[in-house]
Design goal:
This protein is an alpha/beta fold. It has 11 helices and 12 strands. The N and C termini lie far apart (40 Å).
Length: 323
C-alpha cells in the first residue's frame, strides 16, 4: 500500500493526534502543521499541536497560530493520544526535547521532503522531489477528499512559497505551479502573503544584516560570515533576525558555496547553500551530523567558533576540489 493511503487508513482509524515539527521552524514547518490541524479537525479528530521552540514573529499573522502550544509550558502525555504526526523534520534530533518522547507513542507518522530524512517512524512518506512539505499536505487534502478553505490554502501557499525560495529552487515544478494556481483561486493574495513574511523587518535586523555583509569572507569559491553572540547583543537582534542572510551570500557571483556560522547557546549553528549543482551541501552537512537538501542544508557543532569554521571550510574545499 502506498504510504499516503496507509496514512489515510490510520488517520481514519485513530481518534486523537499530536502534530509536531522541527525546532527553528519556518513557514513550511508551521504552515504544514496548521494545515494538518485543519485537515484532522475536518474529520472531527482530537488534535494537539506542539512545538519545542518559539513561533517566528513573521508567522504570527496565521489565523490559527495560537493553536500551537510550546512544549516548555505544557506537560505532554503520549499515552493520551493514538498517533504522533511529524512534519518537515528529517531526523528525530531536530524535534528538540520532543524527540525524547517519540518512542512513547503507539504510532508515528513521518511526512517530509528532505533528502536527508532518516526514515524514522512506523509510516514514512518522504518525497525528495517536492518543493515543500506543504505541497505534500495539499495532496493529502485531495486524498482525503477534503475541500481546502481559505485558511488551509494560506498555510499551504506560505509553506510552498518560502521553501521553494519564492518558486526558484530546484524542487519547484510544473506540479508546484498548478497547485499554487489552485490556491490563488481560493483568494490568496501573493503580495500580501510575501509582505507578511518578508517585509516586516525591524531596524535591528537591517543593522545586523549590514554588519554581516560588511564582514564577508571569501576563499576558493566559498563565501561565509561569522555571527557571534556579541554581535547579536550589540545590535539587539534576535536569532530569527538572521534569517535571509545566507540568501544574500549565495547571490555573490564567485560563490560555489555560501555558509553562515552562528554562535548559539549550545554550539555553532552552520547553514549551507550551494550555487553549483555538482557540490552537494547535504553531504557536507551529513558529514557533520546534519542534513537537508542538495542545495540547502545545515548542522550544529560544538566547539570554538574559529576552530569549527576552519574544520568546516577545509571539508568544503575538499568537496570543491573533487567536483
Amino acid at each position: 500500500m502506498k504510504p499516503w493511503n496507509l496514512i489515510k487508513k490510520k488517520i481514519v482509524q485513530s481518534s486523537s493526534f499530536v502534530v509536531v515539527t522541527h525546532i527553528s521552524p519556518e513557514a513550511d514547518a508551521i504552515g504544514s502543521q496548521l494545515a494538518m490541524y485543519r485537515l484532522l479537525r475536518n474529520w472531527n479528530k482530537k488534535v494537539k499541536l506542539v512545538l519545542d521552540d518559539k513561533i517566528p514573529s513573521n508567522l504570527k499573522f496565521f489565523p490559527d497560530i495560537k493553536k500551537i502550544i510550546r512544549l516548555s509550558g505544557y506537560k505532554l502525555n503520549p499515552a493520551d493520544y493514538d498517533t504522533l504526526i511529524v512534519l518537515d523534520t528529517p531526523s528525530v534530533s531536530r524535534l528538540g526535547k520532543l524527540g525524547k518522547l517519540i518512542t512513547e507513542f503507539n504510532l508515528v507518522i513521518n511526512i517530509d521532503h528532505h533528502v536527508s530524512n532518516t526514515r524514522y517512524g512506523d509510516i514514512v512518506w518522504v518525497e525528495e522531489d517536492r518543493s515543500s512539505t506543504g505541497e505534500m499536505l495539499y495532496e493529502l487534502y485531495k486524498i482525503f477528499g477534503v475541500r481546502l478553505d481559505y485558511k488551509s490554502a494560506l498555510y499551504i501557499y506560505s509553506a510552498i512559497m518560502t521553501d521553494s525560495g519564492c518558486f526558484k529552487y530546484a524542487g519547484t515544478s510544473s506540479r508546484t505551479h498548478k497547485i499554487v494556481a489552485n490556491l490563488l483561486e481560493l483568494g490568496i493574495n501573493p503580495y500580501w502573503v510575501y509582505s507578511q513574511i518578508y517585509e516586516k523587518n525591524t531596524l535591528n535586523k537591517i543593522r545586523i544584516l549590514g554588519a554581516c555583509l560588511e564582514s564577508v569572507h571569501k576563499d576558493n569559491g566559498i563565501v561565509w560570515v561569522e555571527i557571534t553572540k556579541k554581535m547579536l547583543k550589540k545590535y539587539k537582534a534576535r536569532h530569527e533576525d538572521l534569517e535571509g542572510i545566507i540568501d544574500f551570500l549565495r547571490t555573490i557571483q564567485e560563490a560555489d558555496v555560501a555558509v553562515v556560522f552562528q554562535e548559539v547557546r549550545d554550539g555553532i549553528k552552520i547553514t549551507f547553500r550551494s550555487r553549483n549543482q555538482y557540490i552537494d551541501v547535504n553531504k557536507i552537512a551529513k558529514y557533520f551530523g546534519g542534513g537537508g537538501h542538495k542545495m540547502a542544508s545545515g548542522c550544529k557543532l560544538t566547539g570554538n567558533l574559529s576552530d569549527v569554521r576552519k574544520m568546516v571550510i577545509k571539508v568544503i574545499k575538499e568537496c570543491i576540489n573533487k567536483k
